[in-house]
Each structure stands twice: as structure tokens, then as C-alpha cells.
Amino acid sequence: MKIFIDTADIDEIRQACSWGVIDGATTNPSLIKAAIDKRGGEITMAEYIQEILRIIPGPVSLEVIALKADEMTEQARLLYGKFSPYGEVVIKIPINPSIGNDSFSFDGLKAIRQISKDKIPTNATLIMTPEQALLAAKAGATYASPFAGRVDDHIRENLGMKKGVDFEKDDYFDYELLKRIVEEKLRENMKEHGSILESYLDEKVRNIVKLGQDNGVLSGVDLVIRIMRIYQNYGYKTKVIAASIRNARQVREMAELGVDIATLPFNVIKEMVQHHKTLEGVRNFTADVVPAYEDLFKQK
User: Which of 13, 18, 76, 94 is deepest in the core (most CB within 10 A)?
Assistant: First the structure.
């Protein structure tokens, strides 16, 4: 599995790349703005992006800001032409750029199709369903980015949980536990029914099932499983970037699936290398070093 860093903070990028495990990066306009503001306006936007591209040893996703297909295509060409001399540029396009009261729902797909014809790599972003991922692949996207953490949040919020109260952003979503709870609730409610049909038609039963999923998707990890299965079924070459990753356990589960890429915040990459028993072991080994063994390293 390739690891991309999901940040535009140049200090985080430099440090993570020095660890030797970074294969690429994903950014967005908000991340870049926050990173430049942190530097007190000492560098221009263009210079900052060039610096990121010089440091990252692989693809760097840069996002358009338009909503209409023709404007996104124009911006993609501009970004690619301006920054590809400095590194491996990938253009991020929202899978559905509609804000709800317009006719732009398919403009992301139109833009991906046109940009792909121009041989410009694309990253279809903000994917929340397998159906969206299927359309991204059919449009010719180089990468598809399902937002696993946001799907987990959505399911928890449907249960009535509040972020910052009942769960924090980086908390692991235990979908296996939720699945068992839902099954137990269903068993309790079905005891009242005299037939399978009666259970199937019961609105209360249906609502219990809905609370434990998002239209058949059980979690962010499950979302990625389903997308990968669809791509394998039809031989799509679009690579999956597991995005919106919140913790190290979620990274492990993505790796177990065999996902192509995970794009990770700096703090999640740091979390991956930590374990209290590793720390304990290093302290014990260090304390046990005897002078004679230490002298071995002083000899020439």
C-alpha cells in the first residue's frame, strides 16, 4: 500500500518525507491557505505549491475551485501547465460539484472525461458511495478518493451521536460492534411478529437497519471494500485512495483490504509507529547496555 500525506503544511511534509515512507500527497485549497497563513505571508501561493512538488517523491493532488465542467477543465489545464514542471501533478475534481440548487451534478464527471482525454491525471474526490466511484472509473479518473471517515461520521450521526460529545474526530468507529447491536435489536423486535413477511414490512425493523448503515454501506472501510470489488469485477484501472482516515487502526484495515493508496494526516502517520510496549522495550534495552558492548561501537 502506498502512503500519501494529506496536508499542505510544508514542515509536516518535510518531516514525513524524511522518514522514508511517503509516496505522494493530497492537498486542497483550504489546507494550502492555512499553511501559507501559518507562514505569515512570507511566500506566494505559487511558490508554496512549487515547494511542495519539489519535496514530495510522487503524485501531488491539486484541486480546482470551479463548479462548471468547462471552467474546471480550464482550471485543470492551468494548474497542470503551471506546476507539472516541478513535480507529478494530479488534478482533484469533486465527483459531484453541485451545491444543491443547480444543474452541476454531472459536471465533475464531464470534466474528468475531458481532462483524461488531455492525458492529465485526475483524482475524483468527495466520493461517499460505491455508485459514485463506479461513475468516476467509467469517466476515466486516474484515482478515486472515498472519504471513509466522513461515512463513519454520517452513520454515527444517524444513530443520534454528536461529534465532540459522543465521539471525537479521531475515534475508531467500531462497525463490528454496531453490527452485533443491530442484529440483537432486530431479534428482539422480530419476536413480536408471526411471520417473515410481517417482520420485513415492519417500519420499526426497517428503521433499525437504516440506523446501522448508509444505504447498505456499513462503514468507511466497507465503502472501500465495495468499491474495490466493483473495480476488480470490471477491470477498471482507476486506483483507490482511501481518504478521510482518522486513526492507525483504520489504516491497518485499509491495508488488509489491499487498497492501492491511503492518504493520511500527519498525526495518523505518527500514531502508526507508536506502541507502549515498543517504548518499554527500547527503554529496557537502553538501560541494559553494558560498557563492554558500548565500547564495540567506539572501535575503528
Answer: 76
